[in-house]
Amino acid sequence: MTNAIDPRPRRINLDHNSPRAHxxxxxxxxxxxxxAHGVEERGxxxxxxGIYTGLxxxxxxxxxxxRGLGPRTNVRDHLPEVELILVAAAEALxxxxxxxEKRVGNGDCALASYLSASNLRKAVEADRQxxxxxxx
Length: 136
Hints:
Blueprint lengths: L18 H18 L6 H14 L3 H8 L13 H20 L5 H24 L7
Helix pairs in contact: 1-4, 2-4, 2-5, 4-5
């Protein structure tokens, strides 16, 4: 999925059922879980980097650079729909892992986030590799 980064910006739709609105709800649940499990200050960023690195093989600043975005630009506002949905799914799985394994603290929760995102990446890559060629 590292070569799936698309530099084209997309329009932000905050309709209740839009992928971006869904990702905001997933993000809020994820950060609530992080807070409940003792994540503090820079730990939120470290957990998010765990999601991006596990899912895309790149940290947020590398994603921004690859897409020609400014240093403070919100990466999620420029993700294609599929990638945005994958980030939301990785955060939901990360929150679930943190709760299930009773992870506590910045490093422990960042690792759990990375593991969940990495496993999701492997599943997506396996699905893409197993597809039959199109019948033209």
